[in-house]
Amino acid sequence: MRKTFKEFREFAVKGNMIDLAIGIIIGAAFSGIVNSLVNDIIMPPIGLILGKVDFTNLFFTLSGPHFNTLAEAKAGGAVTLNYGIFINTIISFLIVAFAVFMLVKQINRIRRALEHQEEKAPTTKPCPYCKSLINIEAVRCPQCTSEVVPAKA
């Protein structure tokens, strides 16, 4: 039991777990920002363009009489199909998915650039006598004319 607790403690305090926790917290905050962007900034002009439609009040009543707003239907205990809220959720998802796509795209670009730098073999080496940089395949230093051993491939 003691060994299991020790292993769990080591796992929990590793950098990966802390990074994951930070990512979840930032993701939750980002979700709130995106929801506000969709509900408060994007959907009102779209609703205005479509004839003053409030997407949060787009619903079908599946039971009982018709209600004018979703709040009235919920207060009346009606069963509703809330397709307006679903549309808002889809738009929120698309914004989050696009933001994550852009983030991953940039991370991959940076990763490829770093891998490309690592793949490049050195083209120069220091002369063992005068310390000037010479071509890696040189057999004689152009500065001090000393013979040098060419680098192995």
List its traits.
single chain, mainly alpha, 2 domains, two-stranded antiparallel ribbon
Give an account of the 3D structure.
By secondary structure, the chain is mostly helical. It folds into two domains: 2-120, Non-ribosomal Peptide Synthetase Peptidyl Carrier Protein, Chain A (Orthogonal Bundle); 121-153. Helix content is 58%, strand content 7%. It has four helices and four strands; from the N terminus they run ααβαβαββ. Strands 1-2 form a two-stranded antiparallel ribbon. A two-stranded antiparallel sheet has the order 3-4. A hairpin with a 6-residue loop joins β3 (124-126) and β4 (133-135). α2 packs across α4. The longest helix is centred in the middle third of the chain and has 37 residues, at 83-119. It starts with a helix and ends in an 18-residue tail after the last strand. The model has no long low-confidence stretch (mean pLDDT 82).
